[in-house]
Every structure is written in structure tokens, then in C-alpha cells.
């Protein structure tokens, strides 16, 4: 009996050994596969808003190879945790997808950060003092560049060259207004550019002059090209430094993707954007210096070059760099009294604004761009300009047929009541700027009157209610609503900074915009420790910013 028992034990052991030997490669492969499938990171103990309508809130998510692997509760993540998995416990903090700034002139902003900063200046004396301080260490003949000024901050009077001539006798100066549609030159700069009493206004621009016909130093929209043409080009190294500087600032604000409309303003060369692509963005991409994702738009005049480039390389140059579409200007800005309206400015009764581009040219080039499947974005601020662009888009669709083209209007700032519904009906994206509210709320009523300002400005909720997709730029900080009826829900605002903004540049399906499996793990940790706290007091700072699942700030 014992012999039989021992034999059975032996045979059982032998069988186990046999099958172990036979199946070892399979077991070994399985073990290796489990380790390979482990998450690099699991984010847990957080209030996570995904911007994904199918699952808007989750408790945790896993990251592998820079992308979201899984979302859900912590229990559903346990099988993804390996020996090397980093567990990020956030003590209940709110997590949202990385913000997308839908409209920025990125390198211009980075350059401005090292120039004369006039944003927030509240008096003529402060204006002069800032310029005088910038003169320290400057050699005679060296250009003094800067900007950011807003004349509404000191009562509305526009600056003139004589303000700064005495402190800049040997240095030409150019200081752009905060909206980029007007600038101030000192007398020396005007002389270098050959701008005098006989100089005629170019189409789409204005040289502001005294009653006696002498230039005041102020140039509006296309007139700026007369002076910009004589300013020396910015060096490659300065532009590269500007990219890094601006990228670090963006990360500090929780912005992980930006839509760069380029160093292209009325009067600027259309070549700047292309030079920046080759000299700055491609350099940073190949050198591993990109810190955030960038989607580039190019001047509409250069549409054929962009079409050729996309045909050659596709829209995704890398995981950091994307080719977006083309952009043009229909009008100017409210602050520079050059936005195009049906009715005149209250503070300038003979002025209806400026149409910066011929409608016929704009239509023909948009038709050609659209036939090449390029996305088109057109700047329109005044109510008449918005109607002109919507009419143009309607004509293009009628000629070229229906498809998913995602036309954009940049700003859509002042609208006639009947215009609001047209955005949704025509499926035109409204790329709007809440940040401009901080500057326009005090001045809009003075410029276009209380009724027009209150019933047609920044119609965010009205646009949403009409079925319009809106995309936001950099988040502003403001406690009191200007037009309370146009306030939008917190989730709608978050979507405008994330999933809607991604959709508006064709990156929402698989790249960015939501914390969805397969998309890049770009997310922001906020200091709020509950959704209720976040909703009651939206913080103006972020706690941490992650890109590709890697902490990028601080």
C-alpha cells in the first residue's frame, strides 16, 4: 500500500514537473507581459473631472507611456500597479485636464516678457517712468520695444510721442497697445520710418494726426507696417528664449497646449510665422526643448505653402507640434476704435471701425484654402465684421459642399441679436477671450454705449444656448460678472478650456482635451480639496501641472 502511495506521489510530482517544464515559456511570457502592462503612475485620492461626457468624474486614473491607460475608481487600478508604479496620492485635490489656450501669439508674448512692460500702468507719469527706466544701459540708436498699455486705465486719453520724446532723444521707440492693433512711436522712430504729415493712411489702417495734420505717434492696424518695417528683426536666440520663457509661464498657469496664431498682426510680415516654425519650433522639437504642445496657425496669404507642408508631413509633426490652419483679419479691435460696427463709436461719432481685408479677396482665398482641406480662422470683433465673416463662411459651404471643416471666428466679441443663432446653425466655432473682459468691461460702454455693450458683448451663455461650440483662451481672474446673464456653468467653462478647445483644432478625438484612455496624460492639480470648494472659489493658481504623466510644474 505504501509503495502504491509513494508511486502516486512520485507520478504526481513528475506530472507537475513535466507540465511546468512544458509550460514554462508560456508562464514566463505571461509574467513578463504583466510587468510590461503595469502602469507608470496611478493618480488616486482625488476629485477628478475628466471633461469626457461619458464619464465626467472619476476617483483615479492610470498612466503608461505618457498616455491615460484607464480611468475609474481605485479598486479598478489595483491590477495595474507593479513594483515600479508611482502612486500619486493627492489628498482629495481637484484634478482637471490640462488647459488649452485657444488663441495666443506665443512668441510675441514671450518676447514682451523681456521688454518694456506697460500693462497695468495707470497714469502718464508712470508711463513715462517705465520708458525712462528701460533706457538704462541702452546704446544710442538701439530700439526700445515693449507694450501692453491700455489708455482706459488712466481715463481714456491716448498717449502721444511728446510724452516720451524727452526721455528717448537718441533711441527709436515702439510700444504696442495691449490688443496689438495700435502702437505708439516716438518722434525719432517716426522720422526713421519716414512718417510725416504728408504720409497717407494705408488701406485698413490709420495714422492718427493732430488737427494741424502732424502725426501724433499713434499708428492703427495696417498703418503699423510703415514703422514695423524699419525695426530690426528679432534674433533667433531671442526668439528661442522667448519660447522657453512663455512655455514655463504657461505651465505655471496649468496650460499644457496652446494655439499659436503667430507673430502676425496687421502690418506684420507674413514671413515671421514661417521663420518661427523653422528657426524656433523645429529647433526646440528636435533638441528636446519643447515644454508644451503647440498647434500653429499661419497667415491666410500663405495657404498654399501650408497645404503643401501638410501634404508632405501630415498635421502632426511630433507629439509636441501640430499644423493647424490659416488665419486672417476682418477688422481691428474695440480698444483701438478699429473694430467694425454697424453704428459709429459713441466717443468717435464719425468712426465705424476698419475693415482690414477686402471681402472679395478674403472670400476667394478662403474658398481656395477650404478646397485644400485647410481649417480657416478669421478675426472678427465688431458686430458688422462678425456678420461679414459668417456670410463668407456660408458662401464657402455653398460652393464647396458640406464637410467637417470647423470654421472659426476669433473673438466673436460683439454680436447683433440675430447673429448669435447663426454660429450654431452654421457650425462655426466661437474662439472667445474671457481675458479681454478684464479690459473691456469699463471701456465698452464708453465706446459703443450702454445698450449695445450690455446686449451684444461677450455673449458666452447665449452662444452656448444656441448650440455653438466655444473655445476659451487663458483663464482670467475676476470676482464680479459684467453681464450676469451671460455667466456660464463651471463645467461649461472647463470644457471650453479643454475638450471643446481640443475639438476646435481637430485634436479632441485621440490627443488632448480630456482624461480619456488613449489620450496624453496632460493634467492639472488644483489646490482645492473638494469640488464644492473649487466651485465656490475657483483658484487663481495651480498646485501642479503634468504633461505626458510627468510633473512639469513646479
Q: What do you see in this structure?
A:
With 554 residues, the protein is α/β, with parallel strands linked by helices. Strands 8-15-16-17-18-19-20-21 form an 8-stranded parallel beta sheet. Helix 8 links the parallel strand 15 (255-260) and strand 16. Helix 2 packs across helix 7 (236-252), helix 7 (236-252) crosses helix 8 and helix 10 (359-371) packs across helix 11. The chain is globular and about 80 Å long. The model is unreliable at 1-33 (pLDDT under 50). Residues 90-551 form the Amidohydrolase domain.
Number of helices: 19
Radius of gyration, CA atoms, in whole angstroms:
28 Å
Give the terminus-to-terminus CA distance: 74 Å
Mean pLDDT: 92
Gross geometry: globular
Neighbour order of strands in the largest sheet: 8-15-16-17-18-19-20-21
**Largest beta-sheet details:** 8 strands, parallel
Amino acid at each position: 500500500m505504501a509503495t502504491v502511495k509513494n508511486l502516486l506521489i512520485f507520478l504526481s510530482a513528475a506530472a507537475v514537473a513535466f507540465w511546468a517544464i512544458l509550460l514554462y515559456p508560456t508562464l514566463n511570457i505571461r509574467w513578463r507581459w504583466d510587468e510590461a502592462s503595469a502602469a507608470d503612475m496611478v493618480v488616486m485620492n482625488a476629485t477628478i473631472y475628466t471633461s469626457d461626457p461619458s464619464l465626467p468624474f472619476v476617483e483615479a486614473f492610470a498612466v503608461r507611456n505618457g498616455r491615460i491607460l484607464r480611468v475609474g475608481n481605485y479598486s479598478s487600478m489595483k491590477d495595474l500597479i507593479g513594483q515600479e508604479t508611482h502612486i500619486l496620492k493627492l489628498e482629495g485635490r481637484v484634478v482637471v485636464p490640462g488647459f488649452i489656450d485657444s488663441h495666443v501669439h506665443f512668441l510675441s508674448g514671450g518676447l514682451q516678457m523681456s521688454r518694456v512692460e506697460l500693462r497695468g500702468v495707470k497714469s502718464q507719469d508712470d508711463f513715462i517712468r517705465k520708458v525712462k527706466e528701460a533706457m538704462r544701459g541702452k546704446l544710442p540708436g538701439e530700439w526700445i520695444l515693449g507694450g501692453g498699455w491700455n489708455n482706459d486705465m488712466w481715463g481714456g486719453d491716448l498717449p502721444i510721442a511728446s510724452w516720451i520724446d524727452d526721455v528717448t532723444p537718441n533711441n527709436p521707440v515702439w510700444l504696442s497697445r495691449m490688443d496689438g492693433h495700435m502702437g505708439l512711436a516716438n518722434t525719432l522712430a517716426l522720422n526713421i520710418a519716414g512718417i510725416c504729415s504728408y504720409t497717407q493712411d494705408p488701406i485698413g489702417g490709420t495714422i492718427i494726426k493732430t488737427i494741424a495734420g502732424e502725426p501724433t505717434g499713434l499708428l492703427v492696424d495696417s498703418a503699423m507696417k510703415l514703422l514695423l518695417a524699419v525695426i530690426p528683426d528679432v534674433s533667433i536666440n531671442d526668439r528661442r528664449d522667448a519660447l522657453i520663457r512663455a512655455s514655463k509661464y504657461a505651465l505655471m498657469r496649468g496650460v499644457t497646449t496652446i494655439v499659436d496664431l503667430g507673430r502676425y498682426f496687421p502690418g506684420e510680415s507674413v514671413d515671421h510665422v514661417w521663420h518661427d516654425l523653422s528657426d524656433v519650433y523645429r529647433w526646440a522639437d528636435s533638441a528636446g526643448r519643447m515644454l508644451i504642445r503647440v498647434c500653429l496657425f499661419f497667415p491666410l496669404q500663405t495657404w498654399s505653402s501650408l497645404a503643401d507642408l501638410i501634404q508632405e508631413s501630415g498635421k502632426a509633426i511630433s507629439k509636441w507640434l501640430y499644423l493647424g490652419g490659416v488665419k486672417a483679419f476682418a477688422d481691428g479691435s474695440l480698444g483701438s476704435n478699429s473694430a467694425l460696427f454697424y453704428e459709429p463709436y459713441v466717443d468717435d461719432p464719425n468712426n465705424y471701425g476698419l475693415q482690414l481685408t477686402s471681402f472679395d479677396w478674403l472670400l476667394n482665398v478662403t474658398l481656395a484654402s477650404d478646397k485644400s482641406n485647410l481649417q480657416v480662422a478669421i478675426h472678427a470683433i465688431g458686430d458688422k465684421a462678425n456678420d461679414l465673416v459668417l456670410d463668407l463662411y456660408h458662401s464657402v459651404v455653398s460652393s464647396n459642399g458640406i464637410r467637417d471643416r470647423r470654421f472659426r471666428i476669433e473673438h466673436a466679441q460683439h454680436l447683433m441679436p440675430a447673429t448669435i443663432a447663426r454660429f450654431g446653425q452654421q457650425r462655426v466655432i466661437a474662439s472667445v477671450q474671457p481675458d479681454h473682459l478684464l479690459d473691456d468691461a469699463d471701456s465698452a460702454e464708453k465706446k459703443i454705449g450702454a445698450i449695445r455693450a450690455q446686449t451684444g458683448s461677450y455673449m458666452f451663455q447665449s452662444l452656448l444656448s444656441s448650440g455653438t461650440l466655444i473655445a476659451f483662451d487663458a483663464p482670467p481672474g475676476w470676482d464680479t460678472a459684467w453681464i450676469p446673464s451671460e455667466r456660464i456653468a463651471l463645467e461649461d467653462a472647463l470644457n471650453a478650456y479643454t475638450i471643446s478647445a481640443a475639438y476646435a483644432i481637430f485634436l479632441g478625438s485621440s490627443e488632448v482635451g480630456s482624461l480619456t484612455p488613449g489620450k496624453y496624460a496632460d493634467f492639472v492639480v488644483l489646490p482645492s480639496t473638494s469640488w464644492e470648494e473649487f466651485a465656490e472659489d475657483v483658484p487663481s493658481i495651480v498646485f501642479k501641472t503634468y504633461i505626458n504623466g510627468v510633473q512639469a510644474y513646479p
